[in-house]
Write a structure and sequence with these properties.
The complex is a heterodimer of chains A (90) and B (189).
Chain A lengths: L2 H10 L7 H13 L1 H19 L7 H7 L2 H20 L2
Helix pairs in contact in A: 1-2, 1-3
Chain B lengths: L6 H6 L2 H20 L2 H17 L10 H19 L10 H6 L17 H4 L3 H13 L2 H12 L4 H8 L3 H24 L1
């Protein structure tokens, strides 16, 4: 097995149960390939970080620091104007 | 007095308060998922409008923010479904992009020394992550966001986007390769 195939199986292992032959070939490749071992670790790392972003709470504190104040003031203005108009037309 | 008001008037009184209190949080929630600022803003607007139109149904047993995020999250998933590209994605170009002729990695692959829990709260990292997610093509991004951020099962993602499992696996594989490289270049090196 080469790294391109291994990378694919590492990704697939996050989606489905690998079959016996795949599992076997992948574990052997991982024994001898440091780079793919790192890749596997990093995918786990990414999954963990991304799952943290599921929770709405994660957006409370960072929200205001991610958008600058002027930008967000303008956006609030646009949104509230649009909403008023849409409610008026219904 | 308020009992005589039409529900719409009741809602109207809440517009500015809702917009002022929640826009930033809703926007950053949406932006992480849809990538494009204009799309994220539209989603927030749609969600707030829908919230106001169903104002009476807000039971008040959850927080207002949670209720709004719930509506927003539905709007985003609807958007994904409407924009789902059902065509098969090319399964071969990634090989030459990420692997050399002898089928080894082209990338260096560093050790990522960080604690994911802490990093997830780091504002600068969040900005980098957001930019990297935005770089993913739409075909990959929707599936990836549903699977990894929303935590939907493979089956749910396939059903929602009306794509096959094989197709989903290809999308996720390529999204992971690309996101990994982007994070490594822009954050970990």
């Amino acid at each position: 097995m080469r790294c391109d195939q291994a990378s694919r199986l590492i990704s697939h292992s996050q989606e489905r149960q690998l079959n016996g032959a795949e599992r076997c070939a992948l574990s052997f490749h991982l024994l001898i390939c440091r780079v793919c071992r790192k890749y596997k670790k990093q995918l786990k790392f990414m999954r963990k970080i991304l799952s943290k972003l599921r929770d709405p709470q994660a957006y409370l504190e960072t929200a205001s620091s991610l958008i600058d104040e002027r930008q967000s003031g303008e956006m609030r203005g646009r949104i509230s104007k649009e909403i008023h108009e849409k409610l008026d037309s219904t | 007095m308020s009992g005589k008001d039409k529900p719409i008037d009741d809602a109207r009184r809440n517009i500015d308060r809702l917009v002022n209190q929640h826009t930033e949080a809703l926007y950053s929630y949406a932006l992480m998922r849809v990538g494009k600022p204009d799309v994220a803003e539209d989603m927030v607007q749609d969600a707030l409008l829908a919230a106001l139109q169903s104002w009476q149904s807000f039971a008040g047993d959850s927080s207002e923010r949670t209720w709004l995020i719930g509506i927003l999250s539905h709007k985003i998933l609807d958007f994904f479904r409407r924009n789902s590209r059902r065509e098969d994605v090319d399964d071969e170009t990634w090989r030459t992009e990420y692997f050399n002729k002898s089928r080894h990695w082209k990338d260096r692959m560093l050790s990522w020394k960080a604690d994911p829990e802490t990093l997830a709260e780091d504002v600068d990292f969040r900005r980098v992550l957001q930019d990297c997610l935005r770089e993913l093509s739409r075909v990959m991004a929707q599936a990836f966001v549903m699977r990894e951020i929303e935590g939907c099962s493979s089956e749910e993602v396939c059903k929602h986007l009306e794509i096959s499992q094989t197709n989903l696996w290809v999308r996720l594989h390529r999204a992971r390769l690309q996101l990994r490289r982007c994070l490594e270049l822009n954050w970990f090196s």
